[in-house]
Amino acid sequence: MNGGESEEVASAVASPLTPQEWKFSQVFGELAVGEEVQEVDIISTLEFNKSGDHLATGDRGGRVVLFEHTDMKEHGGNRRDLEMMDYSVSRHPEFRYKTEFQSHEPEFDYLKSLEIGEKVNKIRWCHTANGALFLLSSNEKTIKLWKVQEKKVKKIYDMNIDSSKAAGNVSAASSSVSSTPKQYFTYGSFPDCSYNCLSDDLSFPPGGIPSLRLPVAVSGDTSLVARSRRVYAHAHDYHINSVSNNSDGETFISADDLRINLWNLEISNQSFNIVDVKPANMEELTEVITSAVFHPTRCNMLAYSSSKGSIRLIDLRQSALCDSHSKIFEEQEEPSSRTFFTEIIASISDIKFAKDGRYILSRDFMTLKLWDINMDAGPVATFQVHEHLRPKLCDLYDNDSIFDKFECCLSGDGQRAATGSYSNMFRVFGCALGSTEATFLEASKNPMRKLVHAPSKPSRSLCSSFTHVVRRGAESPGVDASGNSFDSTKKLLHLAWHPSENSIACAAANSLYMYYA
Predict the structure, then answer these.
(1) Quick one: which of 478, 346, 503 has its CA closest to 412?
(2) Which of 309, 313, 281 is nearest to 300 (CA)?
(3) Is the dihedral of CA 506, 481, 430, 370 positive or negative?
(4) 3-class DSSP state for residue 431?
(5) The whole model's pTM is what?
(6) How many CA atoms lie within 13 A of 435 on its CB side?
(7) pLDDT in tens, 71-121
């Protein structure tokens, strides 16, 4: 890791910033008044590519929808050229619909009598090559590598065919036949004699054929074509919950409840099992893998979280099967405070590395935590997201909402973190030391924003000697952060932060909302 870069990020995290004003930017797929949400249209994942020029979403119907930055279309797509221009582009990123394709279809495993849904669980962008976009999409069992590229449609411009005689036989080419009044040959025959140029002796009429012309193919309109290049299947007995690309651009991992497999992008019929937590006796199973992600710069390091609230950092150089971890990050809870729901709400649903790889952001049901990979004694900051729902845990358990898996994301500079909640709300917290930023927004055209300031006096972690900041959200039971009635049926599970700009994309049912600051 670059030492200067680490110092820069560390200084950025250490200096608090003023809270940002978030504003509505765009919405795609907004429902009309009285229109019901179709199950297949609900967005199940979304992801920006590394440059932030493209955004991909997947839904429960197995479709992948791509959006592109508007500046790419209007100014040729070269961001470096835009920086050299005298005029400035729009002050916040705007996207437009690019294309969509069917990624997965419903399947049935006859050997296990198991239905495999078409829902797209994860989308991960790969490196671009020759102007083509590459991405991985996954459902419960199968991962596919897709190539999306612009193809020019070529048309036949000129042929020696009489349109009146060839209309019935060459209908596909009739639209491209020249409309000049010149007399053309039909199928190579001369109109004024009985010679057949296609006869067995290949004879030609006297004087030859003066107006013979070869067909000319000209480029027409361009169209986007998505093709499945490889299918990575039959490697998971349980549902895939994570897919992560390696920084080497050649490999990626896929994880289910008990195993993590390592793949090469060029080889689809073979994978290597690098983590296996399955016990010899399944009755002894105490925790499962909930999320896994590669380090953004070190190709030999990856992290995975568990249902017990721990994060393990492993080094692929240690052994082929990484049974042991290099570091483990977990926060011990006092036995006296344990309840029936302790293990359920401690389960980590998502983890993300910061851009430089120094910090790990994790999300469990109640909190959002920031970890320093160099300090495994406890999180450096804890943000209370659902503390106001603690009195309602029984109700949330009865309707299974307590098992909802909320995602989290970090800004490109690592200074802010965001995660979703109920009532179509999402939270943005400041990660800098001493920051009191805690912004609450609703996924709508008119977001109701409310700033909640944390107590100025930070609490000290029980299991470490460093300062552990606790940022609290709304404390009123029965209401959300804005004081509205709590609605567990409207949940914002998926969101993503633009890699270089202060822009957040979030999915509320079938609608994609975008905000900027």
Answers:
(1) 503
(2) 313
(3) negative
(4) coil
(5) 0.78
(6) 26
(7) 755 545 455 555 555 544 456 779 999 999 999 999 988 877 888 999 999
